[in-house]
Amino acid sequence: MVPAPRGKALSMSRTYVVTGSASGIGRATLELLVERGEKVIGVDIHDADVVVDLSTPDGRESLVEQVTSLSGGSIDAVVANAGLASPTSKTVAVNFFGTVATLEGLRPLLAESSTPRAVAVTSMASLFPPDDELLAALLSGSEAQALERAEILAAGTPEQGSLIYGTTKRALALWIRRNAATAEWAGANIPLNGVAPGVVETPMTSSMIATPKQREEMSAMVPMPLNGIFEPRSVAYLLAWLTSVENAHLCGQVVFIDGGSDVIIRQDTTW
Ligand SMILES: NC(=O)c1ccc[n+]([C@@H]2O[C@H](COP(=O)([O-])OP(=O)(O)OC[C@H]3O[C@@H](n4cnc5c(N)ncnc54)[C@H](O)[C@@H]3O)[C@@H](O)[C@H]2O)c1
After folding, report:
1. Ligand 1 close to Cβ of residue 120 (< 6 A)
2. What angle, 0 to 180 degrees and rounded to 10, lies between the N-to-C axes of helices 57-71 and 99-110?
3. Does position 270 have pLDDT exceeding 90, yes or no?
4. In the chain, is it the N or the C terminus that has fewer CB atoms within a 10 Å radius of its CB?
5. Total domains in the fold of the chain
């Protein structure tokens, strides 16, 4: 007979912060964690415990204030997931600067936990060719410069506008890689990692995959031979593991949960 897990009766729930919790992947993650008995502080621009606009400096400041007050000053995990896919400068503000501000702003609260974890949601779109000027502005940390470049792309051709999303996700993946092993993260015993989903059925993608023709076009751009387009709960399981106590040693990894698009697009080039 397998004995009952000894830790269960003694284990205390962990406190998670999930951004973008009102919809899609964020909502699925919040629901999974709550089902597992964890305490979750949901953050979104609407329908959340903490309602803030992560595209603005005021919203980001308010996020830290409200989470500090709701948590009592200590949290165990952050899932920085909120994002936009529109070809606008707001996508730059939310996907990169909002996400980095979430991670950096909440890091002091994570440092109060004995088992802190952080993860951000990038995308397989980080593999698409970026706009080099926007990427450089993002990585330099200059929001004004990045927003200015995004405005130019947004006002250009549809192809130029479409570079914005993938460029924000590439910058975020690089930011994770450049920061995960530093004193602030690894040095403070905080695993910092990312996930890169393929095409997931959420309100973000519903208008892009509504018809068989659109799904065919999408699968030409994002080949997913392993089980195709999938449900947000699959990403939630991975996010939950990356932010669990079990994950003590992954550092700066971006895990592609993409049905195979990374393997097909990059083949052997990551080695
Ligand atoms: N759906 C996909 O196929 C897919 C693929 C790869 C990556 N992603 C990424 O996954 C994350 C979640 O996307 P989703 O598909 O669940 O989309 P979604 O649109 O269903 O959810 C995104 C959530 O982010 C919130 N949000 C947007 N702007 C905000 C702001 N300024 N302040 C606070 N909250 C804000 C939205 O209100 C929404 O609830 C995003 O970062 C997205 O880029 C999604």
Report:
1. no
2. 30
3. no
4. N
5. 1
pTM score over 0.85: yes
**Per-residue pLDDT tens digits for 140-158:** 999 999 999 999 999 999 9
Q: How far is the CA of 83 from the centre of ligand 1 (A)?
A: 4
Q: How far is the CA of 11 from the centre of ligand 1 (A)?
A: 32
d(CA 131, CA 146): 11
What residue owns the CA closest to ligand 1's atom 34? 44
Residue 250 burial (C-beta neighbours within 10 Å; 0-12, 13-18, 19+): middle
Pocket test for ligand 1, best of 56, 202, 206, 257 (most atoms within 8 A of CB): 202
Task: Evaluate if residue 12 carries a pLDDT over 60.
Answer: yes
Q: Is 55 in the pocket of ligand 1 (CB under 6 A)?
A: yes
Nearest CA, atom 42, ligand 1: 83
Overall average pLDDT of the 85-91 stretch: 97
CB 32 within 8 A of CB 236: yes
Mean residue pLDDT across the chain:
95
Instruction: Give me the domain span that covers residue 41.
Output: 13-128+169-258
Specify the CATH number for the domain of residue 123: 3.40.50.720
Parallel, antiparallel or unpaired: strands 77-80 and 39-44? unpaired
Report the catalytic residues.
165
